[in-house]
Amino acid sequence: MSSLAQVSVVIPAAGKGVRMSAEISKQYLPLAGKPLLARTLSRVLALSPRQVVLVVAPGDEHWRAVEGVEHCLVVRGGACRAASVLNGLAALQAATNDWVLVHDGARPCVRGADIRRLFQLVATTEVGGLLGVPVTDTVKEVAAGLITASLDRTRLWLAQTPQIFRFGLLQAALQDALRQQMLITDEASAIEMMGFQPLMVEGHRDNIKVTHAEDLALAEYYLAQQAMTERGAV
């Protein structure tokens, strides 16, 4: 499948990016000559999804100058990620069993091939799934600066986005998380809280979330490497 014609997309980009120590939100910082968010949108829009909803922070007007937003419906975010994604879902024209893909606005290096493969693998499931990569470093559990346990890394994965779920299930899961005042950091967590097991699909380590200042240089490097690989494949 070369496109996501059956899939609606929600892109949460309402975070303030306080860890970047920048004057503007991280999604608008320049990345290889364009705003970071423009890079992310170009990756998603290239797959021709059914519809795209961009979720921005209340009071944010920087999005108006971002290339690609003319192909998106823009809505305002909420007080937390779950509320923001719910606002995005509410703007979709989707039925209960329709697929919805949620992708972080701050992940500009996601590969189109990985998104297509993820959808192909989850399309036959009732729940959905997400991209991720296995943990390779040794992971320690720490309290008050002291190690309390070493975790079995053979069973641990780093969750990424996109994450794809059925519209009705995802909406119900996020609403339930808000009612219970559970702080969730990704959509899969809300699905898991309802007793479901999302499919984990291995992606690539270059699908980083730009969080810290040094991540911008790394993302630019990854984009350049991907472009070189694509040129070599032609």
From TrEMBL:
What the protein does comes down to: Catalyzes the formation of 4-diphosphocytidyl-2-C-methyl-D-erythritol from CTP and 2-C-methyl-D-erythritol 4-phosphate (MEP).
Pathway, according to UniProt? Isoprenoid biosynthesis; isopentenyl diphosphate biosynthesis via DXP pathway; isopentenyl diphosphate from 1-deoxy-D-xylulose 5-phosphate: step 2/6
| Marked site: Positions MEP for the nucleophilic attack | 153, 209
Tell me the gene name: ispD
Which Gene3D superfamilies does this entry report, sorted A to Z?
Spore Coat Polysaccharide Biosynthesis Protein SpsA, Chain A
The EC number on file is: 2.7.7.60
According to UniProt, where does the site described as Transition state stabilizer lie? 19, 26
MF-aspect GO terms: 2-C-methyl-D-erythritol 4-phosphate cytidylyltransferase activity
Task: List, alphabetically, the CDD domains matched.
Answer: CDP-ME_synthetase
What is the protein name given in its UniProt record? 2-C-methyl-D-erythritol 4-phosphate cytidylyltransferase
The UniProt entry's GO biological process terms, in alphabetical order, are: isopentenyl diphosphate biosynthetic process, methylerythritol 4-phosphate pathway
Family (UniProt): Belongs to the IspD/TarI cytidylyltransferase family. IspD subfamily.
Any matching Pfam family: IspD
Enzyme kind, highest EC tier: transferase
- What PROSITE patterns does UniProt report for this protein, alphabetically? ISPD
Protein transport: present as a keyword of the record? no
Swiss-Prot/TrEMBL keywords: Isoprene biosynthesis, Nucleotidyltransferase, Transferase
The chemistry this enzyme catalyses reads: 2-C-methyl-D-erythritol 4-phosphate + CTP + H(+) = 4-CDP-2-C-methyl-D-erythritol + diphosphate
